[in-house]
Amino acid sequence: MGFVIDQLTLLGLNGREVRVFTALATFGQMNMTMLAARAGLPRTTVDAIVRRLLTQGLLVSKKVIGHTEYYVELSDVSHKLDSLIKKISPTAVQKNDEIIVNKQSVDFNNLKNLEIFEESDGSRVGILQSRYTTPERLVGYVTRAIARQCVIDLFAHKQALEGLCEILPRGSLVSTRHSFYRIPTMHCSTHADIILFHNKVCFLDPTHEDVESTQSGNVIAAIRNYMNVIKESGWRMDFIR
């Protein structure tokens, strides 16, 4: 059950929403009164939760002889979860957990798509690098975020952080406001750099410089949860060494 709860949390569900969802997934189609009894929650609470889960596409409603019943279409939920995991989950670790960092000189001031930081003044920004992004691109993210007075949570592997230190003045990275996490390569994003803002998530392809963004509450909650799990793993650095 713990594994199932972890998966549902990844979709952005809170504790009560998990109870409602698992009640339907376990006992099958039922009306609101039965669902409240199975979930052990007040009907008014369950009613609000069901409306949210319907909006998110995690439940299905069906008219049955004058009333409405609800059920879970597990295949649909599975597809949503698979799609999300593909965006944030790593592939197999390379030998010796090493990444080849592109040493080609790049004018990071001209990197594309950094305008995504323009509306982030003073907010907290989470940056999770992909396995193949360059230190120069990380510099672009960090300098733009600092310029907008953002509070930064940066998650990057060792070689990328070392490259970052070689490019940026060390003093610009040392701040009690910012947090840097040196993470194993296996915890980096597979393909896209992930930038988490308070109201959206952006996925930037470091190879083709494509960008996708979403304001989906589910995706924002899932990425935030993933970053919080990393934060709890003890990889924070007090300053870049």
What do you see in this structure?
The strands form two sheets. This protein has a seven-stranded mixed sheet, with helices on both faces. Helix 2 crosses helix 3 and helix 3 packs across helix 4. About 9% of the residues have low confidence. The radius of gyration is 21 Å and the shape is elongated. The longest helix has 15 residues. It folds into two domains: 86 residues, Winged helix-like DNA-binding domain superfamily/Winged helix DNA-binding domain (Arc Repressor Mutant, subunit A), CATH 1.10.10; 134 residues, Endonuclease Chain A (Endonuclease, Chain A, 2-Layer Sandwich), CATH 3.30.870. The protein has nine helices and ten strands. It is α+β, with helices and mostly antiparallel strands. The protein is 41% helix and 17% strand. The protein starts with a helix and ends with a strand.
Quick synopsis:
The chain is an alpha+beta fold. Helices cover 41% and strands 17% of the residues.
Please render the helix and strand layout as text:
Layout: H1 2-10, H2 15-27, E1 30-31, H3 32-39, H4 43-55, E2 60-64, E3 67-71, H5 74-88, E4 124-128, H6 135-147, E5 151-156, H7 158-167, H8 170-173, E6 179-182, E7 193-196, E8 201-204, E9 211-214, H9 217-231, E10 236-237
Parallel strand pairs: 4-5, 5-6
Antiparallel strand pairs: 1-3, 2-3, 4-7, 6-10, 7-8, 8-9
Helix pairs in contact: 2-3, 2-4, 3-4, 6-7
